[in-house]
Amino acid sequence: MTGRAEFASWLEGTNDLTSRFVGSAGIADLVNVAGGLPDASLFPSDRLAEIAAEAIRTRPGVALGYAPTGGLPELREAIAARYRARGAAVDASNVLITASGTQALDLVGKVLIEPGRRIACDFPTYAGAMDAFRPREPRYQHVDLSRHDRLADALGKADLAYMIPNFSNPTGKLVDLPTRRALVEAVHATDTWLIEDDPYGALYYDGPALPGLLELSSRGTEAPYRGPVIHMGSLSKQLVPGLRVGWVIADPELIGKLSSAKQATDLCSNALSQLLTLAALEEGMIEEMHPKAIALYRERRTALAEAMERHISPWFDWEVPVGGMFFWARAKDRSLDVDRLVDAGMEHGVLVGPGNVFDPLGLSGPALRLNFTLNDAEKLDRGMARLAEALVAIGAGTGQQRAPAAAAV
Amino acid sequence: MTGRAEFASWLEGTNDLTSRFVGSAGIADLVNVAGGLPDASLFPSDRLAEIAAEAIRTRPGVALGYAPTGGLPELREAIAARYRARGAAVDASNVLITASGTQALDLVGKVLIEPGRRIACDFPTYAGAMDAFRPREPRYQHVDLSRHDRLADALGKADLAYMIPNFSNPTGKLVDLPTRRALVEAVHATDTWLIEDDPYGALYYDGPALPGLLELSSRGTEAPYRGPVIHMGSLSKQLVPGLRVGWVIADPELIGKLSSAKQATDLCSNALSQLLTLAALEEGMIEEMHPKAIALYRERRTALAEAMERHISPWFDWEVPVGGMFFWARAKDRSLDVDRLVDAGMEHGVLVGPGNVFDPLGLSGPALRLNFTLNDAEKLDRGMARLAEALVAIGAGTGQQRAPAAAAV
User: Which of A121, A157, A261, B115 lies at a CB distance of 3.0 to 4.6 Å from B137, suitable for a disulfide?
Assistant: First the structure.
């Protein structure tokens, strides 16, 4: 036999959107409203520089050596303590430190997905999660979260559920408290593993945070938590994204399996990043940065809403999100070619996120994901003006009526 | 349907040895000769502390932000330049930066292994590679590297080959130049993908480095390299292990697929670690550290050989390795229960690596992997004395003759 083995078949289904976004960061004068990037001016870089230097100088064996696969014990405990303070019954045995939220998804995929297993999601949903699961070849089914009476039935048909209750990516949608309670009741009834992916939970702009699924699921129990919720968190959107530190909070038995999978995936995470994360938690850097981030992003949310109104309202409908990083703009003309629009947008100097990558079942109509956290008001206005030019250039229709309700899922 | 989905079946075959080793680092007075750890006293920590602080302070958007999925372009080019200096015809398009050598294995597994595909190895071989490949469910076959005339036939039956030509883990064996040439000829004839895993390539103690498979395969060609060798490198054993920076050098088309897989695995690597790695390369930190590391590890290799001779020679045979980090000690008594010996060793205060995890086909007899880089001469002596006590305690036999040649594979 001669000839190279072919690339694995799952690669045929993959999209390279995120790396196109990350890679396009160098294009001059491009307005990027496609990614989910924080504003680097918020980074507490001077203090992190001091902490990094001190950690390397005073603890070189830890900062520059191999770390335990599951994460530094002090950091696991610090994360557990933060969740306990919110009312979750968890301890360090519930916590695995990962190298990013994406790695958390990869590891859960490795441990809980076999080919053909069914994942229940509220579509459209995060493309990066589907990318991470793809090598494990799952199938997907949609869950209508508004039908509380059918949730147990829907979850019972799935092997795993995946949800982003706080400002879903891409839709910006917040799952309300009655639905959270109904979801937790349904997963307790069916004992279906349920991922609560929560990168945006700190980004509430209009009111206090709702209790998370992990808190609701663990209420009235003792640590360690042994329920079916698999919570995922990270500091990428609350501190800085580059440390590549995330975590999974789950049943200790599952944490053990995820740790075995992590050992086989990257042996251990960067210890220096974990020490920086620990210091940031202990010094209250996140709490210090939080009001600044909220004020800045709230202002930019308004700026993008106004720019959208000024420039693209003939073509799109949307709701203003109450948190997170994204608007979900639904095309009035349901025949709009979103990929063509994305290409035309790049030609006119604006990068927007095509909705179709988040909607593999095609349940939603044509839509765009638009980010408001990275750019200031002026750039957001310029971006929407350019998007309008691109819409005109491709002869996009404005539709005759509002998109049907199904498109707003 | 109720009840939690079961853990994926590949987990049943996994071993938790590496995490047991990493985790046992905290046990007081334990002599750890099981792991493959460098000596932290060699780390250039003061200079790395300065570089880290400067990078975060002066380039916060880069150091603390998302990095390109494939790695920082300057680092990809710097790695390519190092390999060009050795005679490999490669450029930046041949290079993917990974978060550790283990991640390189995980990504190649995702891209090139489908269930049932065959991997050819020279057993015993690195357990961590088999761990990384396990979720993709490959099968294994042994290649006898001494039979040059049969190499093309053996590789032709495989979808992928995995080799550690420089001081194999666990055996410490160096693949000689004629065998390297024969291997490259065979992979060129069959066009079989061949991984050259090279974490120990800088650790030659007794002479100059032999040309690597990548260099031999690319000779007489122009960059970018498009041949079947997939080279993997890292600075874990040459600088510090904690940066979690490794790389793959391969055909640009394969690099593109690996980059897609990386995007779905952790989105991107830590940028700060990449900046530290780049600075270390540019400042010649590796070249500066190299003679110190070689002198220290050469001395410790001798110390372990002497301690083995003093304490465990009634039970074991070995060759002194000419590089790398390990001795491969073969039991004279082929009925020795290695797992029992490992447990007894821990009770007597020494942690040794059981050979069986490196030898899933059971081709080798009972053996131990013993590391000489982490501990000084006194600790190595204490470790071997304790191992002798453990051997006595379990009533290990000394055998009547030397182990047959097959055990030395």
Answer: B115
What DSSP state is assigned to residue A310? H
Query: Smallest Cα–Cα separation from A373: which of A324, A332, A305?
Result: A324
| Cβ–Cβ gap B8/A114 under 8 Å | yes
CB contact under 8 A, B22 and A260: no
Q: Do B135 and A268 touch (CB under 8 A)?
A: no
B172 torsion bin: left (phi>0), alpha (psi -120 to 50), beta (else): left
pLDDT recorded at residue B406: 47
CATH H-level, domain B9-43+287-408: superfamily: Aspartate Aminotransferase, domain 1 (3.90.1150.10)
Contact A327, A372 (CB under 8 A): yes
User: What residues of chain B lie within 8 A of the CB of A357, using their CB?
Assistant: none
Model pLDDT for residues B136-181, shown as the tens digit of each residue: 999 999 999 999 999 999 999 999 999 999 999 999 999 999 999 9
Label residue B360 left, alpha or beta by phi (over 0 means left) and psi (-120 to 50 means alpha).
alpha
Which of A276, A246, A102, A272 has the alpha carbon at shortest distance from B268? A102
- Joined together, the tokens standing for residue B367 give 């053996």
Q: Which of residues 369-408 of B touch A (CB under 8 A)?
A: none
C-alpha pair distances (Å), A313 with each of A368, A389, A403, A404, B250: 13, 13, 13, 17, 48
Domain boundaries, chain B: 9-43+287-408, 45-283
Taking chain A (409 residues) in runs of 10, the rounded mean pLDDT of each run is: 87 72 66 90 95 96 94 98 97 97 98 97 96 97 97 96 97 97 97 97 96 97 97 92 96 96 94 96 94 97 98 97 97 95 92 94 93 97 98 90 46
Please report the pLDDT score of residue A27 as a whole number.
66
Chain B hits for A23, CB-CB cut-off 8 Å, are: 68-69
Three-state SS across B310-347? HHCCCCEECCCCCECCEEEEEECCCCCCHHHHHHHHHH
Asked if the C-beta of B49 comes within 8 angstroms of chain A's C-beta atoms, the answer is: yes
Query: Which candidate from A46, A267, A271 shows the least CB-CB separation from B100?
Result: A267
3-state secondary structure of A371: strand
> Is residue A330 within 8 angstroms of chain B, CB to CB?
no
Residue with tokens 């998804």: A105
Nearest to B8 among A46, A111, A132 (CB): A111
Mutate to test the interface with A, among B266, B373, B374, B375 (most CBs of A within 10 A): B266
pLDDT over threshold 50, residue B5:
yes
Quick one: fold of A45-283?
A: Aspartate Aminotransferase; domain 2 (3.40.640)
**Which chain B residues touch A197 with a CB distance below 8 Å?**
none
Three-state SS at B230: strand
Q: How far apart are CA A37 and CA A314, in angstroms?
A: 27
Candidates A16, A263, A271; nearest CB to B242: A271
**A9-35+287-408: which CATH topology?**
Aspartate Aminotransferase, domain 1 (3.90.1150)
Residue A376: Cβ-neighbour burial (10 angstroms; 0-12, 13-18, 19+) = middle
C-beta atoms of B269 and A64 within 8 A: no
Euclidean distance between the first and final Cα of chain B, in Å? 51
User: What region, left, alpha or beta, does residue B137 occupy, with left being phi > 0 and alpha being psi -120 to 50 degrees?
Assistant: left
The pLDDT score that the predictor gives to residue A13 is 84
| Spatial contact of A257 and A109, defined as CB atoms under 8 Å apart | no
- Nearest CB to A37 within list B50, B66, B103: B66
Round to the nearest angstrom and report the end-to-end CA distance of chain A: 51
Instruction: Determine which helix (DSSP H) or strand (DSSP E) holds A46, and give its type and residue range.
Output: helix A45-58
CB contact under 8 A, B46 and A69: no
Asked if B265's CB is within 8 angstroms of A265's CB, the reply is: yes
